[in-house]
Amino acid sequence: MTRLFSNIFLSTGKAFRILYLTVIAVLLVASCAPRNEELTQVRIRGTVFGTYYTISYFAEGGQDFQLQVDSIFRAFNESLSYFVPHSLITRINNNTTDTVDDLFRTVYLRSFEIYEETQGAFDPTVSPLVNAWGFGFTDRKIMTTKVIDSLRALVGLNRTRLENNKIVKEDPRIQFDFNAIAKGYAADVIARWLELQGVTSYLVEIGGDLVVGDLKPDDTSWRIALEKPADQFDDPQTWYLFVEMENQAVATSGNYRRYYEIDSQRFSHTIDPFTGRPVTHNLLSASVFASDAITADAFATAFMVMGFEKSKAFVDNHPELEAFFVYSTGLDTYGTYATPGLKILEREDLELNGSAQ
Q: Three-class SS of residue 302?
């Protein structure tokens, strides 16, 4: 099995061992079923982090892992979802606890690495600004310069640290939002768990972040579609480009679906932690391909803060990443850029080969 994962998690990590124990009782029941050597495709769906997940995999006898997967996702929700009022992240944000669990520790440490690599463009403490602009879990405020400056004082992952399994904040009003990295981490954990069950050919997708394993049993790749940027948030989705993947992860972040307009001015959901305001550059979407989804997820968000030129320069100097950018070139026009190692397929090419999906 050639699947690669970041060294900071998954392989023998305590966080994964704990998650594994949470489903061991269900596994014991499932293991009593007779084994069938024939690989059957199985699809399961559900919700986590306030969004939907879809998992497709090939297993002997079509084993259904819905119960086990949902058990793992419950552990993620209880730790990292601010949609859950009593979750660990909610309690840390409200200062009713400062002690972290293994899931929180993993995303915090990886977030800090990417925060430093992107010089602060990826910053999970931007949560107070996201909420104030109306893209979080509170009502939108009237955003004056005074309000923005006061909230900017609460932003900065470097103003927090992890000591003896406890989060220390320089200001108790600092809050965390790991939504831009936790989905990717959860996808990685599920992928690793499937591998431990002997499932090597799979696709795990959570809210648009996904990770795939080996080729399908017929030796074809997993094919993912890239969405054409929409003019309006409620426009139908149009899939016009495709990428074939194997043992890889991808995450996409974009500004053309989540926004609102006031007096014909569009406000993006991506908040620049440096200015405290929605980004105004021309980058419309960033799809990042990496060896694990936790990395792809975080960098896709960081690039939407950095903008096209800085993001292009970054990936050009980081061969471990591949990326596909869509950027505005005018009022109704846009351009695209793909890193050299990424093979982009157009729908017309697939149709000529009789393989469009």
A: helix
Residue in this structure with the two tokens 């940027």, named with its chain if needed: 229
- Nearest alpha-carbon partner for 143 in 151, 121, 261: 151
How far is 307 from 280, CA to CA, in rounded Å? 9
Please report which helix (H) or strand (E) contains residue 249, including its range.
strand 248-254
The structure tokens listed for 234 are 């409620």
The closest of 314, 336, 316, 315 to 325, measured between CA atoms, is: 336
Stretch (H or E) spanning 30? helix 24-30
Name the H helices within 50-178: 66-80, 88-93, 102-117, 127-132, 145-152
CA angle 291, 297, 299 (to 5 degrees): 90
Here the tokens at position 199 are 């499932």
- pLDDT for the residue numbered 237: 52
Render pLDDT for 148-195 as a digit per residue (tens, 0 to 9).
787 888 899 999 999 999 999 999 999 999 989 999 999 999 999 999
Residue 241 pLDDT: 85
Task: State the maximum Cα–Cα separation within the chain, in Å, rounded to a whole number.
Answer: 66
119 DSSP 8-state letter: T
d(CA 304, CA 311): 8
Helix (H, G, I), strand (E, B) or coil at 334: strand
Can you give 266-286 as a three-state secondary structure string?
A: EEECCECCCCCCECCCCEEEE
Q: Which residues contact 220 (CB under 8 A, 6 or more apart)?
A: none
Distance CA 37, CA 29 (A): 19
Give CA–CA dist 132/139, Å, rounded. 7
Q: Is the pTM of this model over 0.90?
A: no
Distance of CA 146 to the CA centre of its chain: 32
Helices (H), 197-231: none
Write phi, then psi, for 115 (nearest 5 degrees): -55, -45
